[in-house]
Specification:
This protein has 646 residues and is α+β, with helices and mostly antiparallel strands. It contains 15 helices and 18 strands.
């Protein structure tokens, strides 16, 4: 049966007042001159239900919020949404009786959060699904939302003669088809999940194939050897490494044995080296001591010489009275001097003890004794230095002899082994490096084999998923008869309107779009907007009636139409066809009553009357936005064009 969706009332709130528009009849026609707000009212339906609507400046400048009373499934829902500001991204859910706020629902999806779309789809009993979509070459599953479903509900004036359910919008085309399949039972959750899995497998298969190609290209460019050749060479290298390692071990063992035989000689050499170092240190210390003794002897000799010169000077010069300076030969007669001071140097005269011959002699004897003692110690220290130097020379000779003996002993036994060990070590290192390089190459080959296995598994999984999709599609194929019946009903309705240039009309079984005279809908533009509008109306009206007549078809029971007579002329034929379209509206409203709802915006009053029709009338004194003065007829055309935006 049709998905029951009905708009009961819409309340528009401004800063000064508010106005409620009710839609209590099966069909409601909104009329009035252009620019009075008919299209804006329909756009406010979409806005209140969480859609992205093109709102006119009059709405954005004056309307604060809009409140819609809606029946979704068996639930009466009251939704309130502001027009501008941060809160415009959310919708308030109100209690249907008290209008108290129950909760606020976001419009954008996020993890673990119920959106307005989720809430409405659940209330309608319409399945919440993801479709297998691709974006930028990668699988990007997309949620089917209430706004997507609303595209089957709302025929906008600017699109009514251009496209059917947004089929020219590439971003929406996949969703449009999947929604149709869901509504007609041509797909279900299982089939949609299989398609998403197929997309994911395709992405994974592409990634693994690219990885396989990259690794294979690297192997081909880096080394021409196959994996089998590398495996054989690796075995040979490991055998060679084992033999080289054994040879190296033997050489090291032999060297250790020879080194053990030289241990005594090495120990003796080390002892001799240590003794020689100690003797050299002793020689250095003795030399320093001898040098110090020389300094002492020289100082005592200097003191004795000074004393001798002083005594001689006193003996020879003291009898003389100097009348001239002995240096410059100038007269000293006029020179003033103090008593007790020397007339020449003006220093105090020496005391008697300093010039006493006995005291001077005693001092000389003491200095002479010091000299003899210092010379005797000096000779002893020099003898010790000579002895230590001789011992140092002997130890140096011993070290040299031991080194020559050790060198001679190791030259023929140890050195060749060192060379052999170095060569064997280099060989082992080279073999290990070759083994590591081949091992890395073999790891890359192993990676290629793993990727090959994964690719085969992915292809097998993909074949199985395609098989499951085919089997599931076959199970759902019975629903294709519904599409055929829908096509028949569409053709019958469109033919009954006697449109010019229309001979045949069907609904394509692949695109689910109307095809007229074997050509797609967009080709009708050449025949005139009136014909395209009629075909679009016939398609939507046929879907609406088909959903009401078939319990397994999930077509929404609401249809909102903006300008059904768009591009119609005012001649007799066009008026007749407009009357036939409205006659179809009346037939549906009379036949299904409250089970459906038609809301139609039109400039002129309907060409028919019916008790099933309600009216909402606007004029320039009473436009849709309450309390706002209309700008006047001169600006009507510009405002109407803005109102008919996407």
């Amino acid at each position: 049966m049709a998905v029951h969706l009905r708009i009961v009332a819409l309340t528009v709130t401004t800063a000064e007042t508010e106005q409620t528009y009710r839609f209590d009849h099966p069909a409601t026609v909104i009329t009035g001159p252009i620019g009075t707000g008919k299209s804006s009212l329909l756009m406010l339906f979409k806005h209140a239900l969480g859609g992205s609507a093109m709102l006119t400046p009059a709405v954005r400048d004056h309307v604060l919020s809009v409140q819609a009373e809606v029946v979704a499934g068996g639930e009466r829902v009251v939704l309130r949404r502001t027009v501008e500001g941060d809160t415009a991204d959310t919708v308030d859910l109100l209690d249907s009786q008290s209008l108290a706020l129950e909760r606020t629902l976001p419009l954008r999806a996020s993890e673990g959060v119920t959106t307005l779309s989720d809430y409405l789809l659940d209330a309608l009993g319409f399945p919440r699904e993801q479709i297998a979509a691709r974006r930028e070459g990668a699988a990007r599953p997309q949620n089917l939302t209430f706004n997507d479903l609303y595209a089957y509900v709302y025929l906008q004036a600017r699109e009514i003669d251009r496209q059917v359910v947004g089929h020219l919008d590439s971003w929406f085309e996949a969703k449009r088809r999947e929604l149709f399949r869901l509504m007609f039972g041509l797909t279900d959750s299982v089939l949609m999940e299989l398609k998403r899995t197929r997309n994911e497998l395709l992405d994974t298969l592409k990634a693994r194939t690219a990885e396989h190609d990259n690794v294979s290209s690297f192997l081909a460019a880096s080394d021409p050897r196959s994996d089998d050749e590398l495996r054989a060479e690796l075995g040979q290298l490991r055998d060679t490494l084992e033999r080289a390692s054994s040879t190296l071990t033997s050489l090291r063992t032999e060297l250790e044995e020879q080194t053990a035989a030289d241990t005594a000689l090495r120990d003796e050499l080390q002892n001799a080296i240590r003794a020689a170092r100690r003797t050299e240190e002793e020689v250095s210390a003795a030399a320093d001591l001898v040098e110090a003794r020389h300094a002492v002897v020289a100082q005592v000799q200097l003191d004795i010489s000074r004393l001798s010169r002083s005594v001689t000077a006193i003996d020879q010069l003291s009898p003389f009275e100097f009348v001239v300076c002995p240096r410059c030969m100038q007269s000293l007669a006029a020179r003033a001097d103090d008593d007790g001071h020397c007339l020449v140097c003006l220093q105090p005269d020496p005391v008697e003890a300093d010039i006493d011959p006995a005291a001077v002699e005693e001092t000389r004897m003491a200095l002479q004794q010091q000299l003899e003692d210092a010379q005797r110690i000096q000779q002893a220290d020099e003898a010790h230095l000579q002895a230590v130097q001789e011992r140092s020379q002997q130890l140096s000779f011993a070290v040299t002899s031991l080194r020559r003996e050790l060198d001679a002993q190791t030259r023929d036994a140890v050195a060749p082994r060192f060379d052999a060990i170095a060569e064997a070590s280099s060989r082992v290192a080279s073999l290990k490096a070759s083994i590591d390089a081949i091992t890395q190459l073999r790891e890359s080959w192993a990676r290629v084999r793993t990727i090959d296995t994964d690719i085969r598994s992915l292809k097998a999984d993909r074949r199985q998923v395609n098989k499951d999709i085919k089997e599931k599609s076959e199970q759902l194929k019975a629903s294709q008869t519904l599409v055929g019946d829908l096509s028949t009903e569409f053709s019958r309705l469109l033919t009954s309107w006697n449109l010019p240039w229309v001979d045949t009309a069907v609904i394509d079984r692949d695109t689910y779009l109307p095809v007229v005279n074997g050509r797609p809908f967009e080709s009708l533009q050449a025949s005139g907007g009136g014909i395209a509008t009629s075909v679009n109306l016939a398609y939507s009206l046929t879907l609406l009636a088909f959903g009401l007549d078939h319990p397994d078809v999930l077509i929404p029971s609401l249809l909102v139409i903006d300008s059904p007579r768009k591009a119609f002329g005012n001649n007799t034929s066009d008026r007749q066809r407009a009357a036939e379209i409205y006659s179809r509206f009346r037939t549906l409203a009379d036949a299904y009553g409250e089970r459906l709802q038609l809301i139609i915006a039109d400039n002129d009053p309907p060409p028919i009357t019916s008790d099933s029709f309600g009216k909402v009338e606007f004029d320039y004194e009473n436009p849709m936005v309450p309390g706002v003065d209309h700008p006047g007829p001169d600006q009507v055309t510009r405002i109407e064009n803005q109102a008919e935006g996407p």
